Every structure is written in structure tokens, then in C-alpha cells.
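Quick entry between incubations.
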Amino acid sequence: MADVDKWVYSNIVKDHFMHPRGFLVGAPKEGEFDAEGEVGSPACGDIIRIWIKVDKATDRIKDIKWQTWGCATAIASASAFVEMIMKNGDMKIDEALKITPTEIAEYLGGLPSRKFHCSILADKAFKKAAENYRANQ
Amino acid sequence: MKEKNKKRIYLDHAAGAPLDKRVKKAMEPYFMDVFGNPNAIYKEGLEAREALDSARGTVAEVLGAKADEIIFTSGGTESDNLAILGVANEVKQFYGAGGKFASLRTDKTGNSTEVKLSSSSSPSPHIITTKFEHPAVLNACKVLEKSGFAATYLDVGKDGVVNPKDVAKALRANTVLVTIMYANNEIGTVQPIREIAKVIRKFRKAGNGKAISGYPFFHTDACQAPGYLDFNVERLGVDMLTLNGSKIYGPKGSGVLYMKRGIKIIPMMHGGEQEKGLRPGTENVAGIVGFAAALALCEREKERETKRLTALRDYLIKNVLNKISKTSLNGSATERLPNNANITFLDAEGEAIILYLDNEGIACSTGSACNSANLEPSHVITALGKPHEHAHGAVRFTLGRNTTKKDIDFVLKVLPGIVGKLRSFSPTSII
Ligand code: FES
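Done. Structure below.
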């Protein structure tokens, strides 16, 4: 990972931050998603929420959306995470669960070290959503 | 991603102001032409000495002080530390291990005067400050607490203004120093320094049960004041005052501690006799010359700039609060520096706002936890009694000499969209 000690964002982070993808505007519609997960960062007080729509038969993620009240890295991480899941078509929940915060940071071209904790938020919120989904099955 | 050559709108003057052209010009001869060590007795040295003396005279005049009351330092942080730790280390010797007499001092005339410790049961020397001081003051006080000093951190109320009555209540027989900033660097609120000084003078005069006579001293960090506020030390009634060159369109790495005659402090560094031995080391002549020029300019343009910037500041505040919902001003609307607008945008995070603004060519700062190295929200916004969520979306705009109405109009044009965008994907809805 580049730039770990510098207070500099990679161009990929900037791009995701300035042009975030896969976020949800406003509240979800009835039946739009099957489960949601929310985490607050104990570190800085930020909040991220992730919604998923899953194909029951195949356990594949049909749709995933996020919202965050957080810093540039939190926004970029959420955007990148959703992109990683959706870019090659629908991913299985188990596969998505394997994505680590380090992989999110790498996908973003590296994060300043003091911002690494923000990439954990997206991952954690998704894990919660997946848990909630399973609990309701 | 950023277009090159896009005009930048710099609204972070409380963090640092650009060097004024006129200051740069005043400094120029002192890099190469006049380079001597001011302590040398030959021509090159004398020339440098002359520049130093003249700068000291200028600063003294602006402050209404005497030349020998001016100590040149490397900036605000050093001046704050020198004042606080300097006084603390001086009084420490009177609080020797259980002793009633700790030291002998000499007064101005050179006579020995015994300094007595009261036999009161709480022997720790005590410092009073506020919850929202600059870290240079807060952390110096915290260090002293670790070495046995007691400290009181006063509340600042929801307006961010210290109540002199609270200072009066906090004073103790063994209070040795009160340090309260003149204007807060984050929210720009101006403290009633004169009234506080009066409270302290009255207490000092009363003498009853005082641990060490002559104490406590009153120090103020006035780094944000020049150019806007009156900082004549006589009128203010302070004993020590900190100034910083880089906030006043002077060079970075330059600063001043004003210290009233008769006050004794222990220096932090030990070396030669420069600055009366209180700040040893070859003087930064160019920096000192620049500092003096910058301070004089601030004073000269004070009235005009105060009027101009107060109008611009109010225009910015009024329009942001009108145009964007769920916004509020942090700190008193009236008791504040003419160049400071600190506004909270709920449901949007400060660092994200800053970076979106940066992308539009605007520079400002935030009190958000996300933007601090220790991930703590601004201690200043928190000191106002506001919850964490308020600090999270707090953005500070500090205007300056080059700020125009056009600049503010541009901010007002792009800001609603930025906040709207961030709110559009925020899961929160804070009431
Ligand atoms: S979410 Fe707060 S620092 Fe990134």
C-alpha cells in the first residue's frame, strides 16, 4: 500500500469520494431490500448503513446499497466495496464476506494509515447485513 | 482531477496567513546584506543589532509596552510554553519539599525579600485556564498537573465566552497563573480580558492568605487578536501576552512573548544572554524584523479591515444559515473576531465538506473527529456543551486581507450543493 504515512489520498480514493457509486438516496422502498446492517465507528463517531437484496435460491447478492455519515475515506470505502461486489455480476454472500478491509484499501490504491479504520466500517456493516439476512431465512 | 490554475479562495487565515508583500520587502535586507550576529561589536554585528532594537521598539510601541518587556520567540506555541512553564518553574522552587520557606528572591531594587509559603493545607500551586484553549496552553497545563500542580479548566458557556465571575470563584490562595486566550482560534469568540484582569488585580491586591505575594500573573494567548482587537497591554491589564507572526501576515517561525517588568520566569532553553537569557540562541533577525513590520501593518489597517471583514463575515453567516437547513453558528454572533465564521452542518461530515470545497478551489478547516490525528472531535465545539454530532459537521471559515465579496459569493454558490450531496447519502437525520 502506498502513502500509508502521508496525509494524501490516492486518485482512486478521490474519484470514489467525488463520484461515489452505489449509494441509496433516502429511505428504501418496501421490499426493495432483504436486510440491512449498520455500524457506528467507535473511533470517530461515524455511521454507515448497508442494504442487500439476495437471490434466495443462489445466495447471490442482487443489489447492495450504502449510506454513510463520515469522512472522505468512509465514503470512498463504501463506494469501492459495493463496486467490488457488483463489478463482475452478482457475487455470492460467502464470497463477499471474504473481502477484507485490507483488500478494500488496496482496491482504493492505499489509504493514509490513520484512515484505515474507515475501510473497516463498510466491511463490518455488510457483515451485519449478511447476518441479519441469514437470521431471517 | 483538479483543474490547474483554478483560482483559489483561501479562507483559513486563522491557521496561517500569507506573508504580506510589504513585510517581505522589510525582511529582504536581513538575509544577505545585513547578516551579522547582533551580538558582535563590529559593523556587521552593529547593523543587525540596530535592526533588532528597532523591531523591538516597534513591537513595544504597538503593545504599549517597554522595549525590555518584549521577548522574541519562534512563535505562539513557544511563547505560551515559555510563559506557563516559565512561571511554573519559577514558583516551583518556593514549593520545595514540605518547606515553609522555599527561596529567597530579590526585588527590583536588588534587596532580598523572603518569600513565604502559607501554611495552608493545600500546598499545590494552582493554575486557571479554560476548556477551549489552544493545545499549546492546554498541553502545557496538563504537563504541569503531572508534576504536582493543580489546574482548573473553566467552562466557557454555550456562547464560548468566559465569565469573569467564574475566574473570581476559581482563584485560590495558591493560584500562581491564570491563562485565558484573547480570541478563540476555532470559533473566534472574544474573551473579556479587561474584566478578567480586573478580577485578578483585585485578588492580588487583597493579599489575604496569599501563598506568594505578587501572584497570580495573568497571561493571554492573543495570537488571533492583532489586526482586529485592542491589544495594548496597559489597557488590557495583562502581565504576559503571546503573539504569533504567521497569523498576522508575518513570517512563520516568529513570535513574541510580552512579559511585564518584574516578573520572573525560568527559561526553557539554556544558552547565551540573548533576550535577557530567557530565550537564548542567535536571534532570527529577518524573522524579527518581519514580525515587527507585520504587527505594525495590522495595527495601521485595523479599523478599516475590521469594518470590511465584519460586514463580509455577517454576510456569509446570514446567507449560509438562510440558504442551508440544519445549520447553526458556533459561538457568540457578536463577541467574535471580524474574520471568523464557524458553522455546523448537521448530517454532513466536516472533512468531506472540506475536501469537496477544496475541489472547488476553497480552503477552510473543520472540527470533525475524522480530521484530527487522535480522532477526537474538536475540544472547542465540545466545550460549548454541544454534542459530538455538532463538532462532526463544524466548518471554520476565516477571512483575510485578500478576501472579497466575490469570494464569499462563490462559497455561497457551491456550498448548498455540496452539503446537499453529502446529506443525500447520509443515514442520519439529526434533530
Ligand atoms: S469515518 Fe471518521 S475518520 Fe473516516
